[in-house]
Design brief:
This protein is α+β, with helices and mostly antiparallel strands and 158 residues long. The protein has two domains: 63 residues, no CATH class; 86 residues, Alpha-Beta Plaits. 17% of the residues lie in helices and 39% in strands. The protein is globular. The two termini are 31 Å apart.
Length: 158
């Protein structure tokens, strides 16, 4: 039986150099792996539905299986609810959903089969001085620019 629990994973370093962790809801699966319930705000490389093995002592993880979801993070200097009102409809039309909202941040999960171009058409118009968006699990966390390409296998015709 799957049970809901929370784990903490390393999410980067704070400005003072201290480690930062993010608490994430997960489903414990029978094979001792964990499935993410929502996309993280700060932990890089993961999205809703991904199955991981976690070393909770070290707060590290290994991806066992990608769900196919892309994590899209929106940051704003203004009230995020205004952006959510603008984005939620177009994201829902792509089959995506809002996973998490704070006053300055929105986290969405959208399946990669929607296509990067379609996703970017939704999010690019909000980029500017007061808001920006980025993928949370598309680029290598080490350099932030090298595509991970995990979606290639998911998008292959069977």
């Amino acid at each position: 039986m799957e049970s809901l629990q929370a784990i903490e994973l390393f999410a980067g370093l704070k400005p003072d150099g201290q480690p930062m962790v993010e608490r994430l809801p997960v489903k414990a699966l029978p094979d001792n792996t964990l499935q993410l319930v929502r996309s993280p705000a700060f932990v890089k490389g993961l999205a809703s539905g991904d199955v991981i093995k976690a070393d909770t002592g070290k707060r590290e993880f290994e991806i066992v299986k990608h769900s196919g979801n892309l994590s899209v993070r929106v940051f704003t200097k203004n009230d995020a609810s205004t952006l959510a009102d603008r984005l939620n409809g177009p994201v829902a039309k792509l089959g995506g959903e809002l996973d998490f909202e704070t006053p300055r941040m929105l986290i969405y999960s959208i399946h990669v089969s929607c296509g990067f171009n379609n996703i970017e058409e939704v999010f690019n118009p909000i980029s500017g001085d007061d808001a920006m968006w980025q993928y949370g699990n598309v680029y290598d966390p080490a350099d932030g620019v090298t595509p991970l390409n995990w979606w290639q296998a998911i998008l292959q015709p069977e």
